[in-house]
Design goal:
The protein has about 200 residues and is mainly alpha-helical. About 80% of the residues lie in helices and about 0% in strands. The chain has 7 helices and no strands. Helix 2 packs parallel to helix 4 (about 75-85) and helix 4 packs across helix 6 (about 135-165).
């Protein structure tokens, strides 16, 4: 991944992903916001709006409550827009982005488990030396930033390699199926939202 645009995309996406829980929490990590923001780097605002809205609708029913870690909307938008920027048709790129969003959630669970093992040691050191709290928070954010950037970069690299190998072998019917499935995403999301609202009004 040598393109400066893709490097900036990964860096920006990483900052937006930190908005989910680690910092800021200004809702910039929602798909409907992250998609258009990231598309400013790729130069295709229409694709960014479309991907952002579709991601928002697709993941709208998955709430980060309790131990639930939802798929990464930022990851979905970043991988989709990066692959589309590199020439992958948007419908194909979107479904690879969705896979990356779920893969990121799985990897994030593992990262959080490792971090939980460190908390006891951090707490003990802070109790002994309270002035270490700022350094501890900074190191925690730095490790989160590094792991997220690494995961997004790996997903884009893997997705690019997969598309280069797969796309020349895909029959025309498969590309049509991807387009039809892509067009169905907002309707699936809207149906899910209507069902949720119906349950809440009862």
């Amino acid at each position: 991944m040598t393109s400066p645009t893709l490097l900036l995309l990964c860096l920006f996406a990483t900052v937006l992903e930190l908005d989910t829980t680690y910092a800021f929490q200004l809702t910039f990590s929602r798909g409907i916001i992250a998609g258009p923001l990231l598309s400013l780097l790729t130069g295709d605002l229409i694709a960014g709006l479309q991907v952002g809205i579709f991601t928002e609708l697709l993941f709208s029913d998955i709430n980060p409550l309790g131990g639930v870690l939802p798929p990464s909307a930022v990851g979905c938008c970043a991988v989709t827009l990066a692959l589309n920027f590199l020439g992958t048709p948007l419908p194909v790129a979107f479904f690879l982005g969705v896979l990356a969003a779920f893969a990121f959630a799985y990897a994030e669970r593992s990262v959080r488990k490792i971090r939980c093992r460190w908390i006891g040691n951090w707490e003990k050191k802070i109790m002994e030396q309270p002035r270490l709290i700022n350094r501890t928070v900074f190191l925690s954010l730095l490790t989160s930033f590094a792991s997220t950037f690494l995961l997004f970069s790996l997903f884009i690299i893997a997705g690019t390699a997969l598309c280069k190998w797969l796309l020349p072998h895909l029959p025309e019917q498969s590309l049509l199926a991807f387009k039809l499935a892509f067009m169905a995403v907002p309707w699936i999301g809207i149906t899910t939202l209507l069902y949720s609202f119906r349950l809440k009004t009862k």
